[in-house]
């Protein structure tokens, strides 16, 4: 048996060649939910850097000073365990939501989707409806076409620039960032990062769009692993909708041998990923609900029941019921709660005082002219609070010892200071060559927090 196979059919194409996706604007209940969530996230993103707490920016990730300030708490690189806990909690929470509601994170709260649809909204306002954009792109260049596209890209760039400066205001104090912008005195590093984030936002939301979700986002590739037969995903009721076909509004579909799908193609036109949900579940689907609102709108016009396209599970699709109490979903929920509990315990045990003890590298011990044994140390203290703090230093386990401090233990908020310390004691009072003891560092005022650092005294 001989097969007639063309050479180009044997070439595996990792990237699907297709033209631009012209997204149709759509309104509906799920889009109201998405817009409310998008506005809340946008307002939080823009407004948070301008919130002040105790005279300082409430949320600031100061990379230069290696201090991450979140309201009353200041975190340092040694507190990066918190980042690990946050990533773990976020991962399990995402697994829980995905197993329960599919890719609703992608459709409603992912920054890529929020910015992509925001850019599409601008495109719709400046270039017209979907059909107008298709028609205009097919026409040769004219003054009207150049003006509209130029205005669109200018607005896109301004939005990208504002996004970049807002993002940078989390790392550079917002007042300082925008004051330097008005004075045209940004440094090279600031210019580089603002330009990079502007370019990335403009490219991702304006040009890459759905390609970022389909080809570059790893979540779209492995999210199906978390699905089961009870996961709620956007699905098309094939039994009810087929056979699809156009008809008049007052026509009886049963007499025509048709299902409820009128083949209006609106579900495809509103999809930001450009897929046809009627072909079944596809990994490109981001569960945004646009096709549901479009289909419900059509069903309402034809006086058909809504829900031809809806959020439903495989069990519901087959006439069964969806169970919430299933092992995988409960397991993800318990792991999410557990990680948050562990993180809360870690935060509760965290003090605003950190200290490290190191020995002088020159010598372990020395004897002065009075016969006193001396051990030199260096104490590094970090003030993690946002107030000026004074600390006291004492000995525990070496009560006969004398403490000589070569400096002040007064630290500014977020300051780290290293102070030389000498411990002296009569050698005859020591029974062993090596005696363990502890330095006790305490706040002079305030909450009287204290920490103990064990070390050794050498005779």
TrEMBL record:
<keyword id="KW-0479">Metal-binding</keyword>
<keyword id="KW-0411">Iron-sulfur</keyword>
<dbReference type="InterPro" id="IPR013783">
    <property type="entry name" value="Ig-like_fold"/>
</dbReference>
<keyword id="KW-0813">Transport</keyword>
<keyword id="KW-0472">Membrane</keyword>
<dbReference type="InterPro" id="IPR017900">
    <property type="entry name" value="4Fe4S_Fe_S_CS"/>
</dbReference>
<dbReference type="InterPro" id="IPR017896">
    <property type="entry name" value="4Fe4S_Fe-S-bd"/>
</dbReference>
<dbReference type="InterPro" id="IPR032879">
    <property type="entry name" value="FixG_C"/>
</dbReference>
<dbReference type="Pfam" id="PF11614">
    <property type="entry name" value="FixG_C"/>
</dbReference>
<keyword id="KW-0812">Transmembrane</keyword>
<dbReference type="Pfam" id="PF13746">
    <property type="entry name" value="Fer4_18"/>
</dbReference>
<feature type="domain" description="4Fe-4S ferredoxin-type">
    <location>
        <begin position="252"/>
        <end position="280"/>
    </location>
</feature>
<keyword id="KW-0004">4Fe-4S</keyword>
<keyword id="KW-1133">Transmembrane helix</keyword>
<protein>
    <submittedName>
        <fullName>Cytochrome c oxidase accessory protein CcoG</fullName>
    </submittedName>
</protein>
<keyword id="KW-0249">Electron transport</keyword>
<feature type="transmembrane region" description="Helical">
    <location>
        <begin position="184"/>
        <end position="202"/>
    </location>
</feature>
<dbReference type="Pfam" id="PF12801">
    <property type="entry name" value="Fer4_5"/>
</dbReference>
<feature type="transmembrane region" description="Helical">
    <location>
        <begin position="36"/>
        <end position="53"/>
    </location>
</feature>
<keyword id="KW-0408">Iron</keyword>
<feature type="transmembrane region" description="Helical">
    <location>
        <begin position="329"/>
        <end position="347"/>
    </location>
</feature>
<dbReference type="InterPro" id="IPR051684">
    <property type="entry name" value="Electron_Trans/Redox"/>
</dbReference>
<feature type="transmembrane region" description="Helical">
    <location>
        <begin position="82"/>
        <end position="102"/>
    </location>
</feature>
<feature type="transmembrane region" description="Helical">
    <location>
        <begin position="154"/>
        <end position="172"/>
    </location>
</feature>
<dbReference type="InterPro" id="IPR014116">
    <property type="entry name" value="Cyt_c_oxidase_cbb3_FixG"/>
</dbReference>
């Amino acid at each position: 048996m001989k097969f007639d196979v063309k050479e180009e059919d044997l070439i595996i194409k990792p990237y699907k060649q297709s033209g631009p996706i012209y997204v149709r604007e759509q309104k509906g209940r799920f889009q109201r939910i998405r817009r409310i969530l998008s506005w809340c996230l946008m307002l939080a993103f823009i407004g948070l850097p301008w919130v002040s707490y105790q005279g300082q920016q409430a949320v600031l990730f100061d990379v230069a000073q290696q201090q991450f300030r979140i309201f009353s708490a200041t975190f340092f690189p040694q507190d990066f365990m918190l980042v690990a806990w946050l990533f773990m909690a976020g991962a399990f929470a995402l697994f829980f939501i995905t197993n329960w509601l599919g890719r609703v994170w992608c459709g409603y709260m992912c920054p890529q989707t929020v910015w992509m649809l925001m850019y599409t909204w601008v495109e719709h306002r400046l270039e017209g409806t979907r059909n107008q954009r298709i028609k205009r792109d097919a026409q040769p260049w004219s003054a009207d076409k150049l003006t509209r596209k130029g205005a669109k890209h200018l607005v896109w760039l301004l939005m990208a620039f504002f996004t970049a400066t807002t993002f940078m205001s989390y790392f550079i104090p917002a007042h300082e960032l925008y004051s330097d912008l008005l004075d045209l005195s940004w440094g090279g590093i600031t210019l580089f990062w603002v330009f990079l984030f502007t370019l990335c936002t403009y490219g991702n939301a304006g040009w890459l769009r759905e390609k970022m979700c389909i080809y570059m986002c790893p979540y779209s590739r492995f999210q199906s692993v978390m699905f089961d037969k009870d996961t709620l995903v956007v699905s098309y009721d094939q039994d009810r909708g087929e056979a699809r076909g156009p008809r008049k509004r007052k026509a009886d579909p049963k007499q025509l041998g048709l299902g409820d799908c009128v083949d209006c193609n609106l579900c495809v036109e509103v999809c930001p990923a450009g897929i046809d949900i009627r072909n079944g579940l596809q990994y490109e689907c981001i569960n945004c609900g646009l096709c549901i609102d479009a289909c419900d709108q059509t069903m309402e016009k034809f006086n058909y029941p809504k829900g031809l396209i809806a959020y439903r599970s495989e069990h519901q699709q087959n006439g069964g019921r969806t169970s919430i109490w299933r092992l995988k979903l409960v397991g993800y929920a318990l792991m999410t709660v557990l990680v948050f509990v562990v993180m809360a315990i870690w935060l509760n045990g965290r003090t605003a005082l950190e200290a490290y003890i190191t020995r002088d590298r020159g010598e372990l011990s020395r004897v002065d002219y009075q016969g006193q044994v001396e051990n030199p140390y260096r104490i590094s203290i970090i003030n993690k609070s946002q107030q000026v703090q004074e600390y006291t230093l004492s000995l525990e386990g070496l009560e006969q010892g004398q403490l000589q401090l070569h400096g002040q233990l007064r630290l500014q908020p977020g300051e780290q200071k290293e102070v030389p310390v000498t411990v002296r004691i009569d050698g005859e009072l020591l029974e062993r060559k090596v005696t363990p003891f502890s330095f006790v560092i305490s706040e002079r005022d305030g909450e009287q927090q204290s920490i103990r650092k064990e070390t050794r005294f050498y005779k």
